Amino acid sequence: MSGSTLAAGITALEGQGIEFEAWAAALYPFMDIPALVTAIVVASVYTNHQKREKYLKNEEYLSKEAYHGEQGGTAVLNKPRGPVSNRVKIWPIVQESLQGSALSALLLGLALGLLTRPESVFESFYEPLFRGLLSILMLVMGMEAWARLSELRKVAQWYALYALVAPLLHGFIAFGLGMVAHHATGFSPGGVALLAIIAASSSDISGPPTLRAGIPSANPSAFIGASTALGTPVAIALGIPLFVGLAQAMMGS
């Protein structure tokens, strides 16, 4: 989930005069944190499976070498033995993921919003500085994404295709779920659009540092290039106008 896309979506809704629930933006950390933790857990399960496969292949190879050594009268190779577990302990991975700097900042900000009165911080710091600081951050990340874009074509062609399709696909899924909430609870059209915009976004602020720390073997060219260079532009340029337009259509019907 992208904080920059969320900010752009809120600005677009306010510019069109579309009202939405004030708490709708708070869905962002509840969606971003589980997504990043799930990515790290799935990657850990996969790498553990790869290590097990490699170990078993090595065991098979050494067994054949030992057999041929016995047949030829040569010394038998000593095979390294060691237990290889097929299970991954999920909770330690979750704990380690939540202790990362990006996710810790999200949790801390959520706690401050719930337990304190953030109005003064919003008026003196967030409102006047957020958009400028966000623009600088996105400029720096955009420069890195451009540098990674050529590498992305080499290492993850199908992943790049998914990064182009996923924003609209995920956005429409969220929009459908938002429509269910709209008819069941009166969730506003603006809130439905904002939910879809959040779901369509890619985690380009908290995602890269979290994945760097949680999945050291992951190629930054893949997840930075796919998220910042492809996913975010699609979500902002196509997703926001599309879902804002659908919200307007809901209000007019």
Number of strands: 0
Order of helices and strands: HHHHHHHHH
Number of helices: 9
Query: What is the C-alpha radius of gyration, as a whole number of Å?
Result: 24 Å
How is this structure best described in words?
This protein has 253 residues and is mostly helical. The protein has one domain (3-43, 94-252). Helices cover 80% and strands 0% of the residues. The chain contains 9 helices and no strands. It has helices spanning 3-15, 27-72, 90-98, 101-115, 119-155, 157-185, 189-200, 207-214, 220-252. Helix 1 (3-15) runs antiparallel to helix 7 (189-200) and helix 6 (157-185) packs parallel to helix 9. The longest helix is centred in the first third of the chain and has 46 residues, at 27-72. The chain is elongated, with a radius of gyration of 24 Å. The chain starts with a helix and ends with a helix. The model is unreliable at 74-81 (pLDDT under 50).
Index terms:
253 residues; mainly alpha; 0% strand
SSE diagram, text form:
Layout: H1 3-15, H2 27-72, H3 90-98, H4 101-115, H5 119-155, H6 157-185, H7 189-200, H8 207-214, H9 220-252
Helix pairs in contact: 1-7, 1-9, 2-3, 5-9, 6-7, 6-9, 7-9
Question: TL;DR of this structure?
Answer:
The chain has 253 residues and is mostly helical. The chain is built from 9 helices and no strands. It has helices at residues 3-15, 27-72, 90-98, 101-115, 119-155, 157-185, 189-200, 207-214, 220-252.
